Model the fold of this input.
Amino acid sequence: MALYEERIFSRGFALLMLLAVVLLAWSTAAAYYSKAFWVMLTVSILLTLVFVDVIAIRIEIDEREVRIRGLLGLVVRKTVKIENIASFSVSEGWMSCYGTIHFTLPAKGCVVLRQKRGWMVSFTTNNPDEVARVLAMLGVPREP
Done:
């Protein structure tokens, strides 16, 4: 059972990805009579799946782990075990923090998870205080 769940979505970014998908479809249609059509179709399908995956971020926190997923969970996908988190910090503004692995869409705040083993992971959230409360409740120390 999740202690915290959130989905972050940006209409502006989704429109940009929709434009990219439309341009891919147009390019694929233009290549219909060429020898490269099947290559173009394959690349277009793969890129469309990536574009759909990155238009939203799902954050789930339970007693065991923090899961960050894209809309489909194909490319945007990271799980951090609670016992592997050395500390965390919270910043206001979605561009205010950096992690080696960073998941970002426009939001109110940003959370950085410093791991005992592995790279720092950061993600944006519209409820930074709620994420901080849940992580503190799970015994993860907060950096000053």
Summary: The chain has three helices and eight strands.
